[in-house]
Task: inverse folding
C-alpha cells in the first residue's frame, strides 16, 4: 500500500511539477517585429490631463480623447540584446540620492521562427532582464536574456521551436490551436521536470548587506522552485537550477513556491545576514502541505511552520503577507488540476479547479505556531499582497493581536482563470476590440484576523473605482525594521498611507490601452495624483526614498515605460509626491512588458 501511495504521489509530483514549473509566462500566431528605427531627437509629450479629468466615485466618465497607438509593439518579441553597459541620454534631473541599479524581469520571446510554436500567455515567454545603473546622474543600460537550460534548449532548436512545456497558457500552432496529444504531453512533462529553469517573474536580493558589486549575486524567480543566479556587476547568468536546495524540516518534494519572498521586519541579530521568508507547497506521503520557509543570506533554508491542505488538493499562491510578528497565508478558492489533457489544452491557470471557500491561516513567527486557521465562505482571489499591519489588543506586547493583510484582489476569478484573464496574448494580439474585453484590474481588499476571538473579516474598498495591478509602497522591500509609522502605541506595524500602481482603462476610459500610473491615498480613499499620457504603457514602479525626507511619499518612482508613438522604451524618474516626471532616460531600445524587479541602492560597478 505504501508503494502504491508513493507511486501516486510521484506521478502527481511529476505532472504537477510540469505545470508549476512553467507557471507564469506564453504566445500566439504572430510575426516578430524587425529592427526598429532610432527614435527622433525631439521628445514627444502629450498634454497633461487636467485635475478635473480624474475619475472619482462621485464623478462620471471623463471626456479625454486618446489614440493609444502601437500597444501591440509592447507585447511583441524583442530578441535583441544589449550585452554591455551602454550610456543613455538623460532629459531632466535625477535627484542626487538616486544611486544604484534597477533590474526589471519579464519575457522577451514568445514565438518560434517556424511560425508553428507560440506561447499564448504573457507569463510564459523566455526570461529577459533590463537593467539600469544610475550613478552621479548618469545612466547605463543592459538588456539580457537569462541563459539557463530552457533558453539553451531554444537555441539548440535553432530558434525554430520553443521548448516543450506546460505553461500558464497552452502552446499554440499556426492555426492558434493547442499542441496536444500523448507524445506532446510526455515531452512537456519530461522537459518541465528535467530542464525547466525559466524565471521571468521577479528579482530578489538574498544578500542585501553585501556592498561589493564584484561579489554580489541576484536571483531571478518564478512561482516554482527554479532559480537563476545573476552576476550583479556584469548581469551575466551565473547558474540556474530546476529545484531548490533542501529545507530543513521538509517532509516531501517542494512543488510550488511563490515568486514574492519577503524580508524579516525585525532587527537582524547579525549585521551580515538578512532573513527572507516564503511560502511553498510540498508533496509527501500524506498529501500536499503548505510550508513557511525561512532562508538566510548564507543560503540555509528551514521550514518554520507547516500545515496540511485540508481538502487534499494543491493550492495556488503567488504572494502572502508578513509583518513584524505574523505571517498570513490566504489560500484562494483555486486548486491545481493535474489532468494532463487539461494542462496541455488550457494551460496551468485556466485549468484550475474552483472550490467554494477561502482559507486564512495566521502563523506566529517567534514560535512557528498556527494561531488562526479559518475557512470562510467569502471568495477572495488575488495575485499580489500590498502590506500587512498588526495592532495589539492590549498594552502587553505578548498579547493577542489583530492582523490585517491588504491585497490587490478580485471578487471573481476572471483575472486569473477566465477567458479574458490578464494579458492573454492570443486575445491581446487580435486588436483593441479584443483587449477591451480584458479584466479591469484589482481593487483594495483587507483580510482582517482577530486572534482573540478567532474571527476573519473581509473588507472590500468600493470607494476607489480605478482597477490596478502590481502595487507597491515605500516599504515593499525594506528590512531591518524599517516600518510604516504607527498611529498609536498599540500598533506594531501600520499599513502605509500611499500605494503606487499601474492600471489599464485609466481614469474610467473604455479603452484597455489607456494605461496610467497612480498614487492611491488609502486614508482619504482617493487617487491623490497620477501619470497618464497618450500611447505610454507603464510597468510596476519601484519606490526610492529620499533619505532627507520626512514624509512617507518623499522620494521618486522608477518605472520602465514603453512610448508607443516613438516605439522606444524609456526609464521614467517620477516625483512620488505629485507624480510629475523629473527625468526621462532614453534607451534607443524596445523592451516588452515586464513584471517585477528590484532596486539595489548605493552600488557601483567595479570599474567606477
Result:
Amino acid at each position: 500500500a505504501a508503494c502504491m501511495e508513493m507511486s501516486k504521489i510521484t506521478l502527481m509530483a511529476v505532472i504537477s511539477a510540469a505545470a508549476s514549473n512553467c507557471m507564469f509566462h506564453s504566445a500566439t500566431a504572430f510575426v516578430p517585429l524587425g529592427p526598429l528605427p532610432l527614435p527622433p531627437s525631439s521628445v514627444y509629450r502629450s498634454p497633461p490631463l487636467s485635475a478635473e479629468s480624474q475619475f472619482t466615485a462621485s464623478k462620471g466618465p471623463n471626456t479625454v480623447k486618446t489614440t493609444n497607438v502601437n500597444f501591440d509593439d509592447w507585447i511583441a518579441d524583442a530578441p535583441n540584446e544589449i550585452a554591455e553597459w551602454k550610456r543613455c541620454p538623460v532629459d531632466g534631473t535625477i535627484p542626487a540620492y538616486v544611486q544604484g541599479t534597477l533590474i526589471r524581469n519579464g519575457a522577451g520571446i514568445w514565438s518560434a521562427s517556424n511560425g508553428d510554436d507560440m506561447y499564448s500567455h504573457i507569463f510564459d515567454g523566455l526570461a529577459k532582464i533590463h537593467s539600469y545603473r544610475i550613478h552621479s546622474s548618469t545612466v547605463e543600460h543592459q538588456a539580457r536574456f537569462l541563459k539557463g537550460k530552457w533558453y539553451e534548449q531554444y537555441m539548440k532548436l535553432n530558434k525554430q521551436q520553443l521548448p516543450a512545456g506546460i505553461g500558464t497558457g497552452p502552446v499554440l500552432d499556426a492555426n492558434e490551436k493547442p499542441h496536444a496529444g500523448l507524445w506532446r504531453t510526455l515531452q512537456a512533462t519530461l522537459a518541465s521536470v528535467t530542464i525547466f529553469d525559466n524565471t521571468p517573474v521577479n528579482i530578489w536580493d538574498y544578500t542585501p548587506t553585501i556592498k561589493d558589486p564584484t561579489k554580489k549575486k541576484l536571483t531571478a524567480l518564478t512561482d516554482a522552485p527554479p532559480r537563476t543566479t545573476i552576476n550583479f556587476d556584469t548581469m551575466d547568468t551565473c547558474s540556474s537550477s530546476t529545484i531548490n536546495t533542501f529545507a530543513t524540516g521538509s517532509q516531501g518534494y517542494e512543488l510550488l513556491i511563490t515568486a514574492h519572498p519577503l524580508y524579516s521586519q525585525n532587527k537582524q541579530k547579525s549585521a551580515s545576514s538578512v532573513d527572507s521568508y516564503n511560502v511553498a507547497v510540498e508533496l509527501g506521503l500524506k498529501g500536499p502541505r503548505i510550508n513557511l520557509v525561512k532562508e538566510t543570506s548564507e543560503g540555509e533554508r528551514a521550514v518554520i511552520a507547516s500545515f496540511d491542505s485540508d481538502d487534499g488538493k494543491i493550492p495556488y499562491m503567488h504572494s502572502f503577507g508578513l509583518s513584524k510578528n505574523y505571517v498570513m497565508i490566504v489560500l484562494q478558492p483555486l486548486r491545481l488540476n493535474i489532468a494532463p489533457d487539461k494542462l496541455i489544452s488550457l494551460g496551468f491557470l485556466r485549468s484550475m479547479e474552483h472550490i467554494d471557500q477561502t482559507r486564512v491561516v495566521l502563523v506566529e513567527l517567534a514560535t512557528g505556531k498556527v494561531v488562526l486557521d479559518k475557512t470562510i465562505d467569502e471568495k477572495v482571489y488575488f495575485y499580489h499582497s500590498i502590506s500587512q499591519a498588526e495592532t495589539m489588543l492590549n498594552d502587553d506586547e505578548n498579547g493577542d493581536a489583530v492582523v490585517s493583510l491588504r491585497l490587490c484582489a478580485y471578487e471573481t476569478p476572471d483575472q486569473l482563470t477566465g477567458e479574458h484573464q490578464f494579458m492573454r496574448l492570443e486575445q491581446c494580439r487580435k486588436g483593441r476590440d479584443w483587449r477591451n474585453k480584458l479584466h479591469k484590474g484589482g481593487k483594495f481588499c483587507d483580510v482582517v484576523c482577530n486572534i482573540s476571538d478567532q474571527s476573519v473579516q473581509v473588507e472590500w474598498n468600493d470607494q476607489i473605482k480605478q482597477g490596478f495591478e502590481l502595487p507597491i509602497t515605500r516599504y515593499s522591500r525594506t528590512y531591518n525594521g524599517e516600518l510604516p509609522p504607527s498611529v498609536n502605541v498599540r500598533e506594531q506595524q501600520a499599513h502605509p498611507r500611499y500605494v503606487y500602481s499601474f492600471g489599464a482603462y485609466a481614469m474610467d476610459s473604455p479603452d484597455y490601452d489607456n494605461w496610467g500610473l497612480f498614487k492611491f491615498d488609502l486614508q482619504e480613499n482617493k487617487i491623490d495624483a497620477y501619470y497618464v499620457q497618450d500611447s505610454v504603457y507603464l510597468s510596476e514602479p519601484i519606490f526610492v526614498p529620499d533619505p532627507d525626507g520626512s514624509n512617507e511619499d518623499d522620494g521618486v518612482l522608477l518605472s520602465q515605460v514603453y512610448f508607443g508613438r516613438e516605439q522606444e522604451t524609456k526609464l521614467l524618474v517620477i516625483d512620488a509626491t505629485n507624480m510629475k516626471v523629473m527625468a526621462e532616460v532614453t534607451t534607443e531600445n524596445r523592451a516588452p512588458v515586464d513584471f517585477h524587479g528590484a532596486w539595489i541602492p548605493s552600488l557601483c560597478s567595479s570599474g567606477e
Summary: The chain has eight helices and 37 strands. Residues 1-63, 604-608 have pLDDT under 50 and may be disordered. The two ends are 64 Å apart (CA to CA).
